[in-house]
Amino acid sequence: MDILRLFYDCDEFCREFVPQLHARQVAQSRSPRQRETPLSVSEVMTILILFQTSGFRTFKTFYLQHVCQHLTRAFPHLVSYSRFVEG
Question: What sign does the CA torsion over 80, 43, 53, 74 have?
Fold first, then answer.
């Protein structure tokens, strides 16, 4: 699978979807923290789609053994596994 093409498609989807999502969300009583994340929504989506097509049984194994070892050039701002799954 071509990672660059997959990322492009995810990014195009996010450009349309994320603003619509924010416009339709119900206001919360307290404002959520708006912390900057190293990975964009498009990058997270790309990694999750790659996992679904990878054949790995668990996401943790996929992330630690494949993404962190072989895809660091494609995703230069990778975070630890625990940081990835907590947000």
Answer: negative
pLDDT at 28: 67
Rounded to whole angstroms, how far apart are CA atoms 55 and 25? 35
Distances (CA, A) of 85 to 19, 33, 46: 23, 17, 15
State both tokens at 62.
């996929």
For 57, half-sphere exposure in the C-beta direction (CA atoms, 13 angstrom radius) is 0
Alpha-carbon dihedral angle through residues 4, 10, 15, 16, given to the nearest 10 degrees: 140
7-41 pLDDT tens trace: 999 999 999 988 888 787 777 666 666 667 789 99
Q: Write out the H or E segment, with its range, that includes residue 43.
A: helix 41-52
Does this model's pTM top 0.85? My answer is no
